[in-house]
Specification:
Radius of gyration: 17 Å
GO molecular function: peptidase activity
Largest sheet: none
Protein name: Clp protease N-terminal domain-containing protein
Keywords: Hydrolase, Protease, Repeat
Strand content: under 5%
CATH class: Mainly Alpha
Organism: Streptomyces thermospinosisporus
Number of domains: 1
Distance between the termini: 24 Å
Pfam families: Clp_N
CATH architecture: Orthogonal Bundle
Amino acid sequence: MFERFTKDARAVVKGAVAQAAAVGAASVTPEHLLLGLLEREGSRASFALAALGGGEWKDAVREELEEVRRRGGLTRAEAEALAGLGIDVDEVVARVEGVHGVGALSGSRRGRRSGHVPFEKGAKDVLERTLRIALAQRERRIGDEHILLALTSRPGVPAEVLAGHAVTYESVSRVLYGGGEAKAG
């Protein structure tokens, strides 16, 4: 499948691996793929994000993803559901970090050396969905815009965080394929 990826899509995947390695993550997650996308410039996905106001909120997205990582990957909706059961996720995180250190719930593998960071199931699902989206658009190549569309089309942290900034599958599709003010070339 990777032979069909454009240079930009490959750079996003490599960036995701680098993001995971930088924080000592045990595996590459969909969140790392989103961080890899946010680092790109001059690509179709970066065009779509910029058209949707990305210059104004990219740093906020990075901060939100860091907060999710500290919560052990729980989405805002999951934290709210637990709050409805009387469980204060922020308090749990604070107590765990008080005993085990900041970032204890982040899935870090600090101290283990392996040169390879595998892709977890969610990240693999995003990449498979990326292929399906490209095929549905009758595209021969898989671009970083297809990764962005895949991240916005599946439930989870990236879609939730992006939707908080009005970046949805529908809004990205409108910018990329028409029906909006701008159209990617």
